[in-house]
Amino acid sequence: MKFLNGGWLIRDGCSVKYAANIYTADIEADRLTLFCPFGSPIYNPGMTLDGGILTIEVTSPREDVITTRLVNFREDRSHCPKFHLNETAPKVEIAETDDAWTFTSGKLTLTIAKGEQIDFAYAYDGKPVAHSGWRAKALVTDPEGRLHVSDQLDLGVGEKIYGLGERFTAFVKNGQSVEIWNEDGGTGTEQAYKNVPFYLSNRNYGLFVDNPGKVEFEIGSERVSRVQFSVPGQEMAYSVIGGHSMKEILGTYTALTGRAPLVPDWSYGLWLSTSFTTDYDEKAVLGFVDGMAERHIPLSVFHFDCRWMKELEWCNFEWDATKFPDPEGLLKKLHERGLKNCVWINPYIGQKSRLFKEGAEHGYFIKRTDGSVWQWDKWQAGMAIVDFTNPDAVAWYQGYLKELVAMGVDCFKTDFGERIPTEGVQYFDGSDPELMHNYYTQLYNKAVYDVLVETKGADQAILFARSATVGGQQYPVHWGGDCSSNYPSMAESLRAGLSFGMSGFGYWSHDIAGFEDRPTPDLYKRWTQFGLLSSHSRYHGSTEYKVPWLYGEEAVDVCREFVELKRRLVPYLERMAQETHDTGLPMMRSMVLEFQDDRTCEDIDTQYMLGDDILVAPVFDEEGIATFYVPDAGDGMPWRNLITGTEYEPGCWYTERYDYHTLPVLVRPGADPLNA
Question: Which residues are annotated as catalytic?
Fold first, then answer.
C-alpha cells in the first residue's frame, strides 16, 4: 500500500507511526522479543507513557529461515485461516553484545543493532543479503481508518525481484505495485489467478509474507530503493530465507510450504479439450478422438469442458442425457482407445442445479451474516459457493466426485475459485472472510485432489487447476487461464509461467493457441511448438474447436511432429519431475534461475529451460524470426539444436528465421535428453 507523498510528506487521509528504536529485549532459548516505541527513542521512564510499542518477535521455523512478527495489539487469530508450514524447530543461536543482538539459524544470521534507530541486517554464510533500516517498520492508517502493518527491505543497485505468483506483467518485478489478491481477470492485466506472497531476489534471499489475505508489495514503486510490503490488521509475519543461490532458496521455501508430488506419466502427453462454449455430444467427442488417430497424432487425455452438464445447472455433476445418454459407455470407449479423460468442475452451484436445494438445506454453502445462503448472478443464475470449511460440505461435494470416478472419470479440471466474496458473509468455522478470499482455492483444490488420491492412488492423482495460493504446488497441475489468440498474449503467458516457477510451483500449462478468439494458422502452429515443449500440454479454447485439421494440413503435421518429440522426451521429463519433487525446482525454469551468474539472463522472459538440459525459445513472430541468447554452461562448449543439429557458440545472441517444423530448442553441451 502506498502512503507517502514524495520523499517528505504523507498522502492525504493517511497517518503513519514509525517504530523508533529498540528500548528493551527478552531472550529465550528459541525466540528473541524486542519492544520498540513509536515516534522517537525513549530516554527515560516517563517517555514510556501514551506512545504505544511495536512488539517484534524473531523465531525460526526451519534452518536458514528467520521469521519476524510485528505486533501492535494482540488479537485472537483462532478464526483466521493459515498456511500449513513444515516447521522443524531448528536449533538457533541468540547472542547479545554491547552493540547488537544476533539471531542465527543454519547459515543465516540476523544482526539487530542497538542505538537510536532500528537496523536489521541479514547475512548468509557471512555475506550480506538483505537489510531493513531507518523508518522501515511502521503502522499506517489508511483514509478509511483501517490499520496496516508495513515493513521495508533495501533494494540495492542491480538488485532484481522475481516471483509473487503467476503474474502477466513484466518478469522483473522492480517498479511494480503488486496486490496479492486472486481475481478472474484474464491474462492481459495486472490481476492474477495465482497470487503468492513470496519473492526471490538475485542478492540471494527470499521473502515470504505469512498471511493468506491481501498482502501489498511496492517493489521500488513507493521508495525506489526499497521493497515495501504490508498487510491490513494488527500484525504481520514474514520470513527471510537465505541460500547460496536462488535455486537453493527456492528449495528451502518449498520445504517449508510443501513440494509438488510426482504426476502420472500419461499426463505429459497431449490433452485435447472440447473448448468452453462449443456444442458437442458423444459423436463429436469420438469424431475428434478418431480424427487424431486417423492423422497419427498420439493423444493422451480427452477433456470435457463445462457443457458435459446442462447450461444453467453448473455444477450439478450430472451428464446431459440429451448429449450423453450413456456416459459410462463413452468413457469406456475412450479407455479402450488408450485415453484418459478429464471433466470440468467448479465450486459454484447454480440455483437451477439439482444440488442447490440439498446444499442449502444442509448448510453446505457460504452464508450471509443473517444466516441465509449467499448468492449472486455473476456466473450461474442465483449461484451459491460451497463452504469448504465445513467438513460435511467437503464430504458431500467429494461424494459426487467419487460417483464420477466410479463412472470412469480419471481427473478433474478445477476451474475458478477466485471470485470469493468478503463482504457480509460468514463461514461455517468462523474464518475471517477477507483472509479466506485467497485461501479458498487451497481448500477447494485439496478437497478434489484428496478424492483422486483416495480413489486412484497418489501416483495417478492430478488436477488441471486455475487458481492457487501458497502451498497449492502440492495439488498439480495448474494452467495459465484465459489468454487471447495473439502473440503478445502468448508472450504474457510465458512470462507468467516463469514467475509461477519462481514462486514454488513445479508444473505449468497454458491454452495452446489461446483461449479467446480464433487463432490464425500461423499462431496455431507456433503456439503448438511452445505448448508441446511445456511441462503439460493442452489444446483449449472458448468458442472455437482446437483440433489441428481446422487450421490446415501443415498444422496437422506440426502437431504430430511435436507430440512425437515430446513422447520421446517423457523419460527425460520424468527425471526432471523427480528433481522437482525432491528439490522444489520448476520443470520450466527462467534463464536467471538456471544461470544466475550470467547477468545477461537476468531480464530474459522470452525463452526458458525445460529442465536441466533443454533451452526453448518460442517463436513470437509471424515472419518466423526468433531472437535468443545462448549462455555458457560452464565449459565454453557449443549447444546444439535438438531438431536440426545446428551448433551455437555460448555467450552470444542469435536472430534466425525458422519454419514451422523447427524453432530454437537447444541441448546443453554433453547432454542427451532423448536418451535420458
Answer: 415, 418, 482
CATH 3.20.20.80 positions along the chain are 265-348+391-583
Q: What is the pLDDT of residues 308-326, one digit of tens each?
A: 999 999 999 999 999 999 9
Model pLDDT, residue 296:
98
Contact 139, 72 (CB under 8 A): yes
Which residues have a Cβ under 8 Å from the Cβ of 1 and sit 6 or more positions away? Answer: 140, 142, 148, 150, 216, 218, 230
Grouping H, G, I as helix, E, B as strand and the rest as coil, residue 75 is: coil
Assess contact for 417 and 440: CB atoms under 8 A.
Answer: yes
> What is the fold, at CATH topology level, of the domain defined by 265-348+391-583?
TIM Barrel (3.20.20)
> How do the residues of the chain divide into helix, strand and coil, expressed in percent and rounded to 5?
25, 30, 45
CA distance 248 to 243: 5
CA-closest candidate to residue 403, choices 343, 350, 362, 359: 343
Q: What are phi and psi of 390, to 5 degrees?
A: -95, 110
Asked if residue 410 lies in contact with residue 463, where contact means CB atoms within 8 angstroms, the answer is: no
Single-letter amino acid, residue 341: N
Burial classification of residue 8, based on how many CB atoms lie within 10 Å of its CB (0-12 exposed, 13-18 middle, 19 or more buried): exposed
Could you give the residue range(s) of every CATH 2.60.40.1760 domain in the chain?
Answer: 4-242
CA pair distance 248, 630, nearest whole angstrom: 23
DSSP class of residue 162 equals E
In the chain, which stretches have pLDDT less than 50?
none
| C-alpha radius of gyration, the chain, whole number | 26
Report which DSSP code applies to 374: P
Distance CA 471, CA 502 (A): 14
Residue 13 exposed, middle or buried by CB count within 10 Å (0-12, 13-18, 19+): exposed
Selection from 100, 216, 210, 205 nearest residue 155 by Cα: 205
Provide the pLDDT for residue 46. Answer: 83
Please tell me the number of Cα atoms within 13 Å of 587 on its side-chain side: 27
Estimate to the nearest angstrom the gap between the alpha carbon of 76 and the chain centroid: 29
DSSP string across 448-486: HHHHHHHHH-GGG--B-BS-B-TTGGGS--BB----BSS
Cα–Cα nearest to 180, from 137, 229, 222: 229
492 grid coordinates? 504474457
Q: Give residue 129's pLDDT.
A: 98
Determine the pLDDT at residue 676: 78
Q: Which residues pair with 272 in a beta bridge?
A: 302, 539
Which numeric CATH code is attached to 4-242?
2.60.40.1760
> DSSP letter at 5?
E
8 A C-beta contact, residue 307 and residue 315: no
| pTM reported for the whole predicted model | 0.98
State phi, psi for 618 to the nearest 5 degrees. Answer: -60, 150
- State the pLDDT at residue 44: 83
Q: Would you say the C-alpha torsion 585, 591, 597, 603 has a positive or negative sign?
A: negative
**69-128 per-position pLDDT tens digit:** 999 999 898 899 999 999 999 999 999 999 999 999 999 999 999 999 999 999 999 999
List the CATH code of the domain at 588-675: 2.60.40.1180
Q: What is the pLDDT of residue 473?
A: 98
